[in-house]
Write a structure and sequence with these properties.
GO molecular function, one term: magnesium ion transmembrane transporter activity
Strand order of the largest sheet: 1-2-3
CATH superfamily of the largest domain: SLC41 divalent cation transporters, integral membrane domain
Pfam families: CBS, MgtE, MgtE_N
Keywords: CBS domain, Cell membrane, Magnesium, Membrane, Metal-binding, Transmembrane, Transmembrane helix, Transport
Number of helices: 24
Structural class: mainly alpha
Family: Belongs to the SLC41A transporter family.
Subunit structure: Homodimer.
Distance between the termini: 91 Å
Number of strands: 6
């Protein structure tokens, strides 16, 4: 099927495309020459031999005029495999889809795996989604609509309905017949799921077991009936953890009554892990979103400003806090020299503890420990690091300034600060996790600023209390 504007003539300027693709592991020059000459047969012969990922890499580097020729050269069904590997963001999906005719785009979406089509449609406006669903194949549209109803970031939202299910009361021979028949449309055939008359999940059987067992054996005798499954509303991060723990290639998704709704494959979980890691990192860095590299400075600033504004006011509070100890600073001006040291050490140790805590929550390791064990371990870590750094800085300041009491003051301040900062860096994300708030929100800049405030209070509090010894 032709796309709108696909009959445009002219070889176009493909020099930039050739530069962008020169390092790929396929014959880009041959493909580009076929596009220039509008050699459909030559292009298809070379292009369709490529892995879909390589097809997507080639396609992404083309300019719009060259892409228009690609739409003319390959069918919507062939385009579906490419599009599933495009890995684009909202703007890229919209741009590419807008180049296609609506019928071509809808046909392509119909031929994609349902979960991948849902991922694409979730990036589009509701009006666009409704338009595509209206002109799509009805069966595919209904399948996609069912998946679109699930809340984002849940097992239901990332599952696919292209799986193979058999009955427990049939033979291996008949199960293999179903497998061969349904395999072309299934996303994976390594696991075959067993359901009863009410479509409830009762077992699973691997492809290996189907092959090695006698054809006359009953499925119920061979299947594994202790099936690990995910609930449709389960968080995708928990699903990823479950698949990691059990080393599954696919995981069934059920409702609260045990009906089999779909499966989640390992490729979807890899995407989830990448997405969650990017999300956690962006929050730890105090950035609203880090899905892609922003080329527009205004867009980049928009994502970074919210946290920076909050931290700006917290910084002003820190500055006003120091102002309250103006009298102490006037009497012992040397104290100001060590403010960056105290605050910096507090921020560093707090960020270390935060990173360990967030990772422990993400992997589920911290959930296996009691709260008191965590508190005691972190307090012990803070005590050891604080004592070591405190003793070191005491002697450094003493040899530098020749004042043992000043060195002891700075050392004690660091000792107390590191204990408190370590506990804060660990317990704040744990508290947030307990309150059902993403612990990554306790970002590095936030913890650093909070620990700055705590360290200033400790440092000047001790200095003010022992002012008499400092001014002698």
């Amino acid at each position: 099927m032709l796309v709108l504007g696909a009959d445009r003539k002219g070889a176009g300027d493909l020099a930039d495309n050739n530069d962008a693709l020169s390092k790929k592991n396929f014959n880009t020059e041959l493909l580009l020459q076929a596009l220039r000459r509008e050699d459909i047969d030559g292009f298809r012969e070379e292009f369709l031999e490529l892995h879909p990922y390589d097809q997507a890499s080639f396609f992404s580097a083309l300019d719009e005029e060259a892409r228009m020729k690609v739409y003319h050269f390959i069918s919507p069904e062939e385009m579906a495999g490419l599009f599933e590997n495009l890995g684009g963001e909202e703007d890229e999906y919209q741009d590419v889809l807008s180049e296609m005719s609506p019928d071509y785009a809808a046909d392509m979406l119909s031929n994609m795996y349902a979960d991948d089509a849902v991922d694409v449609l979730n990036e589009l406006d509701k009006d666009q989604v409704a338009s595509y669903l209206t002109i799509m194949d009805k069966e595919a549209a209904n399948e996609i609509k069912d998946l679109l109803h699930y809340e984002e970031y849940t097992a239901g939202s990332i599952m696919t309905t292209e799986y193979i299910a058999i009955s427990a009361n049939q033979t291996i021979r008949s199960a293999m017949h179903i497998l061969k028949k349904e395999a072309p449309r299934a996303e994976t055939i390594y696991y075959v799921y067993v359901i009863d008359e009410e479509k409830k999940l009762v077992g699973v059987i691997s492809l290996r077991d189907l092959i090695v067992n006698d054809d006359d054996n009953m499925v119920s005798k061979v299947m594994y009936d202790r099936v690990v499954a995910a609930m449709a509303g389960e968080d995708q991060e928990e699903v990823a953890r479950k698949m990691r723990d059990y080393n599954f290639l696919a995981l069934p998704v059920i409702d609260f009554q045990g009906h089999l709704l779909g499966i989640i494959t390992v490729d979807d979980i890899i995407d989830v892990m990448d997405e969650e890691a990017s999300d956690d990192y962006s929050k730890l860095a105090g950035i609203a979103d880090l899905d892609g590299m922003d080329r527009n400075p205004f867009s980049a600033a928009k994502k970074r400003l919210p946290w920076l504004v909050i931290l700006l006011f917290l910084g002003m509070f820190t500055a006003s806090l120091i102002g309250r100890f103006e009298e102490t600073l006037n009497k012992v001006a040397i104290l100001a020299v060590f403010i960056p040291l105290i605050a910096g050490m507090a921020g560093n140790t707090g960020t270390q503890a935060l990173a360990v805590a967030v990772r422990g929550i993400a992997t589920g390791d911290l959930e296996k420990e009691s709260k008191w064990n965590i508190i005691l371990r972190e307090a012990g870590t803070g005590f050891i690091t604080g004592l070591t750094c405190g003793i070191l800085v005491t002697f450094v300041v003493y040899f530098w300034q020749g004042d043992l009491f000043l060195g002891a003051l700075v050392g004690i301040s660091i000792f107390c600060t590191l204990i408190v900062a370590t506990l804060a860096g660990s317990l704040v994300p744990l508290f947030m996790h307990k309150m059902k708030i993403d612990p990554a929100v306790a970002s590095g800049p936030f913890i650093t600023t909070i620990n700055d405030i705590i360290s200033i209070l400790i440092y000047f509090g001790i200095a003010t209390a022992f002012m008499g010894y400092l001014t002698k």
